[in-house]
Design brief:
Strand order of the largest sheet of chain B: 1-2
Structural class of chain B: mainly alpha
Oligomer: heterodimer
Shape of chain A: globular
Order of helices and strands of chain A: EEEHEEHEHHHHEHEHEEHHH
Largest sheet of chain A: 6 strands, mixed
Bound molecules: adenosine-5'-triphosphate, magnesium ion
Strand content of chain A: 15-25%
CATH architecture of the largest domain in chain A: 3-Layer(aba) Sandwich
Distance between the termini of chain A: 59 Å
Number of helices of chain A: 11
Strand order of the largest sheet of chain A: 6-7-8-3-9-10
Structural class of chain A: alpha/beta
Largest sheet of chain B: 2 strands, antiparallel
Number of domains of chain B: 2
CATH class of the largest domain in chain A: Alpha Beta
Number of strands of chain B: 2
Chain lengths: 284, 270
C-alpha cells in the first residue's frame, strides 16, 4: 500500500519573495502520528497549508492517497485532510458553536440528518455539546480551540493536521487535547502536528520531521530528539526526561529515555540491578 | 480583557409569548407595524400605539431597566431636538424670545409637532428593541436569510459582529502595550507625538485586520468553502405565529383608524 500523504520536492515562495519551502520530500503512512518540529520561520505552517490544498505547490507535488492536489480536485481532497489552524479566532467564525461545526459538513453537501449526527458526535468528542448554542466570541481560548477541532472532526477526514495545538492552552487543556488526539488516533485517523513542544513530541509521536529554513533536516523516530548536533542545529532542546539522564552520565542508560514511561522503566531496571549486586555482595 | 463584552441579545433566552414567536413572522409583522407607527399623525393614534407596544414589552418579561438604558442612547438627543423644534414652526406663540432685530417664536403648533415626532420615534425604537431583545442574534440573521435578504448583507453583519470583539480585544492589548512602555496621550489630540502614535496604532490595526481576514478566508477554504455560506433552516411557522402576527398588524391598523378621523370610518361601514 502506498503512503497516504506524499510530498515530492516541494518549493514555495510567498508573493513578497520569501522562499518558505526549498525542496521538501516526505511521505506519511496511514495511522501514523507525526510531529513536525523546527525553529520559528522554518516553514512548518506553510508546509501544513499545502497538505489540504490551501496553498498549491508552485514546484513539486503533493499527493493525497495517490492523487495529486490540483485546482480541480482541491475541494474534494479537503474532505480527506482536515486542518486545525493555530489561532481558533481565525477558524471559528459562525454565530454559534453549532453552526460553526456544521459549516464543513454543509460545504460537503451532506443531508440534514447526517449533518446533525456529525455535529453531535464531533461536539461530544471534544466535550462542547452543552455549549452548542453559545456565540464563539464569548468563549474562552481553550473552548474556541475545541470548537475548531470539532469543526474538523465533523468533516470526517482521514488525516487531521494541527498547527501548534498546545500553544496557549493551560495544562489541563493540553492534557485533554492529548486525550482527544489519542481518541482520534484510535479511530484510525492519521494525525500530523506542528509544534514547539519537544516533550509532547517525544511522548506522543511515532515519527518526527525536523524542518529548518524550508528544508528537511532529518526525519525518523523520536531518537532524533536526543541527537546532540541535530537538536542544537534545529534550535530545539532535549526532552526534560532525557535531560535528567544526560546530567548524570554515570547512569549510563543508552539510548537516552525520552518519555516518562521509558524513564520509569530504566530506573526500575537500574534499581533491580543494584539489588542483585547487593545480594551478591552479601553472599560472597 | 478589562471590560466584559457587550451582549447584543442577553435577554433573548427568556421565555414569553414573544420569545417563542417565529422569528420570520415576528420580523415581517413588526416591520409592518413600524411602517404604520411612523406614519401616524395624531397624538391619539400615537398614544394608542405607545400603549400597546408598552404592553407587549411588559408581556415579554424584558427587564424594564435595560430597556430604559438602551433608550438612553437615543432619547436625550431627541429631547433636545424636540425642545428646539417649535422655534422653527410658525403659529400661535407660547412665548417669544426677542433677539434685537428678530424675534423667535415658540409656537404651540410646533410643540405639538415635536410631541408627535418624539412619540413616533419612541414607538419605533420600542418595536425594534422588542424584536432584537427577544430574538437571539444568530436566529435573527438566519431568518433574514430566509426572508431573501441578499447573503452578502447577512455575511457582512455576521462577520462584523464576530470580529468586532476580536479587534476590540486586539486594540485594548495594543493600547495596554503602549501604556506599559509609558506612553501617555497628551491632553491635546493634535500634539505631534500623540497623534503619530495613535496614527501608527490605527494603521497597525488595519494591517492586522487585513491579515486576519486572509487567515480566516484560508481557514474557510480548508473546510471546503466554495463562495457561499450554507445554512440549515430550522424554523417552522405554526398557526399561532400567524395569529400573533395578524393581531399585531390589526393593532397597527386600529391605531391608524384612531389616527385618521377617529371612529368616523366605522360610521361609513354601517
Ligand atoms: N503571508 C506571508 N507572506 C510572506 N512571507 C510569509 C508569510 N507567512 C510566512 N512567511 C514567511 O515564510 C517563512 C516560513 O513561515 P512559516 O509561518 O511557515 O514558519 P513556521 O515554521 O510556521 O514558524 P512558527 O514556528 O513561527 O510558526 C518565514 O520566513 C516567514 O517569514
Ligand atoms: Mg507557524
Amino acid at each position: 500500500m502506498g503512503a497516504l500523504l506524499e510530498v515530492e520536492n516541494l518549493y514555495f515562495r510567498y508573493h513578497d519573495g520569501t522562499p518558505a519551502l526549498n525542496g521538501i520530500s516526505l511521505s506519511i503512512n496511514r495511522g501514523e502520528k507525526v510531529a513536525i518540529l523546527g525553529p520559528n520561520g522554518a516553514g512548518k505552517s506553510t508546509l501544513l497549508l499545502h497538505f489540504n490544498g490551501v496553498y498549491l505547490a508552485q514546484q513539486g507535488k503533493v499527493r493525497v492517497a495517490g492523487e495529486e492536489i490540483t485546482r480541480d480536485n482541491e475541494t474534494r481532497l479537503r474532505g480527506k485532510v482536515g486542518m486545525v489552524f493555530q489561532d481558533p479566532d481565525d477558524q471559528v467564525f459562525s454565530p454559534t458553536v453549532w453552526d460553526d461545526v456544521a459549516f464543513g459538513p454543509l460545504n460537503q453537501g451532506l443531508g440534514r440528518k447526517e449533518i446533525e449526527e456529525r455535529v453531535f458526535q464531533a461536539l461530544q468528542a471534544v466535550g462542547m455539546w452543552d455549549l452548542r448554542s453559545r456565540a464563539p466570541h464569548h468563549l474562552s481560548y481553550g473552548q474556541k480551540k475545541r470548537v475548531a477541532i470539532a469543526g474538523v472532526i465533523a468533516m470526517n477526514p482521514e488525516v487531521i493536521v494541527l498547527d501548534e495545538p498546545t500553544a496557549f492552552l493551560d495544562p489541563a487543556g493540553q492534557e485533554s487535547l492529548m486525550e482527544i488526539l489519542a481518541e482520534l488516533h484510535q479511530r484510525g485517523k492519521t494525525i500530523i502536528v506542528a509544534t514547539h513542544d519537544v516533550d509532547m513530541a517525544a511522548e506522543w509521536a511515532d515519527k518526527v520531521i525536523i524542518l529548518k529554513g524550508g528544508k528537511i533536516l532529518a526525519q525518523g523516530d523520536t531518537m532524533l530528539l536526543v541527537q546532540d548536533t541535530l537538536v542544537k542545529e534545529a534550535a530545539l532542546r532535549f526532552p526534560v526526561v532525557s535531560q535528567v539522564f544526560q546530567r548524570i552520565p554515570s547512569l549510563l542508560v543508552r539510548p537516552l529515555p525520552r518519555t516518562v514511561d521509558e524513564a520509569a522503566n530504566a530506573i526500575a531496571t537500574l534499581l533491580k540491578d543494584r539489588e542483585k549486586k547487593d545480594k551478591h555482595h552479601i553472599v560472597s | 480583557m478589562e471590560q466584559a463584552h457587550i451582549h447584543l441579545d442577553e435577554f433573548a433566552r427568556l421565555k414569553s409569548f414573544f420569545h417563542q414567536f417565529d422569528p420570520r413572522v415576528k420580523i415581517v409583522s413588526c416591520l409592518m407595524l413600524l411602517v404604520i407607527v411612523v406614519s401616524l399623525r395624531t397624538l391619539a393614534g400615537l398614544l394608542f400605539a405607545l400603549l400597546f407596544t408598552s404592553l407587549m414589552i411588559f408581556g415579554s418579561h424584558l427587564p424594564l431597566g435595560r430597556i430604559v438604558k438602551r433608550l438612553g442612547f437615543v432619547v436625550p438627543m431627541l429631547v433636545v431636538l424636540c425642545l428646539f423644534l417649535p422655534f422653527a414652526r410658525p403659529g400661535t406663540p407660547v412665548f417669544k424670545v426677542p433677539l434685537g432685530i428678530l424675534t423667535l417664536t415658540y409656537s404651540w403648533e410646533g410643540l405639538q409637532a415635536s410631541a408627535i415626532f418624539f412619540l413616533r420615534l419612541l414607538c419605533g425604537a420600542l418595536i425594534v428593541i422588542l424584536v432584537t431583545f427577544t430574538t437571539p442574534f444568530h436566529v435573527l440573521l438566519h431568518s433574514l436569510a430566509d426572508l431573501r435578504v441578499p447573503p452578502i448583507f447577512i455575511q457582512l453583519i455576521q462577520f462584523t459582529l464576530r470580529y468586532f470583539f476580536v479587534l476590540y480585544d486586539e486594540t485594548i492589548r495594543m493600547f495596554r502595550a503602549r501604556r506599559a512602555r509609558n506612553f501617555k496621550a497628551a491632553r491635546n489630540f493634535w500634539s505631534g507625538r500623540t497623534f503619530s502614535t495613535l496614527g501608527g496604532l490605527l494603521g497597525m490595526l488595519f494591517i492586522r485586520s487585513y491579515e486576519r481576514g486572509e487567515r480566516v478566508y484560508y481557514a474557510m477554504l480548508a473546510r471546503g468553502f466554495q463562495g457561499e455560506i450554507r445554512v440549515l433552516d430550522q424554523f417552522q411557522v405554526r398557526p399561532r405565529d400567524l395569529l400573533l402576527g395578524m393581531s399585531l398588524i390589526v393593532l397597527g391598523v386600529l391605531s391608524l383608524i384612531i389616527d385618521r378621523g377617529g371612529w368616523g370610518w366605522a360610521h361609513f361601514l354601517r
